[in-house]
TrEMBL record:
The gene is thrB. It comes from Pelosinus propionicus DSM 13327. InterPro entries: GHMP_kinase_C_dom, GHMP_kinase_C_sf, GHMP_kinase_N_dom, GHMP_knse_ATP-bd_CS, Homoserine_kinase, Ribosomal_Su5_D2-typ_SF, Ribsml_uS5_D2-typ_fold_subgr. This is Homoserine kinase. ATP binds at P90, L91, A92, R93, G94, L95, G96, S97, S98, A99, A100. PANTHER family: HOMOSERINE KINASE, HOMOSERINE/4-DIPHOSPHOCYTIDYL-2-C-METHYL-D-ERYTHRITOL KINASE. HAMAP family: Homoser_kinase.
Length: 302
């Protein structure tokens, strides 16, 4: 007996300025994963697109580990596991490539074994594998998500803005691992900085919910992680300033970086070119892409 499933998973941007480890948005950039299960054969993994030649193609592959986690959970065993990843999400850039891989593996394996696990169970498993819920939540559910940990269980709220929102992402040519980006963060922050971020997160969610995007010029400000990570992304403030000067409502570090993301409802190309030029002035080669909010999240396409 053999089973084939194909899944599409969106990339994501997390934090959105002050919403550290809590706020995430599903973006219209995707990975597609094909899973083939058989009673005969061995493990085989192929990668096309981003990460080809860099992503492990053995049992260390995170997609395989996600697939195996589902098989173990539901009590299934297959000798032959074939995975093929068609990836458009840049690796180690702050666009949720690892979350997409984990979610894709979980959902493909769940579908292949009879859909016995709920979305919430998939969410919980993805959070355990990823280590935090802020990217896996929008990857699964789509839209904008707020995630919290209640004891050991992740909880999420999903919503969509009342108006269209575009995101212009400047992608520098260098990678930045989440581990490295977390190492520069302080163990504690002041009460003043905590209050600053709480107020900005409240304004951020309100502005996004109501579509009052002009508030983003203040709501995207942060004092918890971006000031410390700025040293890892040359030209970060200059790129932010260039985006705003060309009409963006505001800009932020995408996830742990190094991608920088500007929010707008128009002038995407003008903003993107200005962001790339600002990076260039700091001797950083970059490109840009224009995205919108994915509303579906991960889904089986075949």
């Amino acid at each position: 007996m053999s089973i084939t499933v194909k899944v599409r998973v969106p990339g994501t941007t997390a934090n959105c300025g002050p919403g550290f480890d809590a706020v995430g948005i599903a973006c219209t950039i995707y990975s597609e994963l094909e899973l083939f299960l058989s009673d005969e054969g061995t493990l085989r993994i192929e990668i096309e697109g981003e990460g080809k030649g860099r992503i492990p193609t053995d049992s260390n592959n995170i997609i395989y580990q996600a697939v195996q986690a589902v098989l173990d959970r539901v009590g299934k065993h297959y000798q032959g596991i074939y995975l093929k990843l068609y990836n458009k999400i840049p690796l180690a850039r702050g666009l949720g490539s690892s979350a997409a891989a984990i979610v894709g593996g979980l959902i493909a394996a769940n579908h292949a074994t009879g859909n016995t696990l709920t979305q919430e169970e998939i969410f919980s498993m993805a959070t355990i594998i990823e280590g935090h819920p802020d990217n896996v939540a929008p990857a699964i559910f789509g839209g904008i998500t707020i995630s919290v940990m209640q004891d050991t269980q992740p909880v999420h709220l999903r919503f969509m803005p009342e108006k269209m929102l575009n995101m212009v992402v400047a992608i520098p040519e260098f990678n930045l691992s989440t581990h490295t980006a977390r190492q520069v963060l302080p163990d504690t922050i002041t009460m003043k900085d905590a209050v600053f971020n709480i107020s900005r997160v409240a304004l951020l969610i309100g502005a996004l919910c109501k579509g009052e995007f002009h508030h983003l010029q203040y709501a995207l400000e942060d004092k918890v992680h971006q000031p410390y990570r700025q040293e890892l992304v040359p030209g970060m403030q200059q790129v932010f300033d260039a985006a705003v000067a060309k009409g963006a409502y505001g800009a932020a570090l995408s996830g742990a970086g190094p991608c920088l993301i500007a929010f707008t409802d128009s002038n995407c190309d003008r903003i993107g070119k200005a962001m790339v030029q600002a990076f260039s002035k700091c001797d950083v080669k970059a490109e840009y892409i224009s995205l919108s909010i994915d509303i579906e999240g991960a889904k089986v396409i075949e």
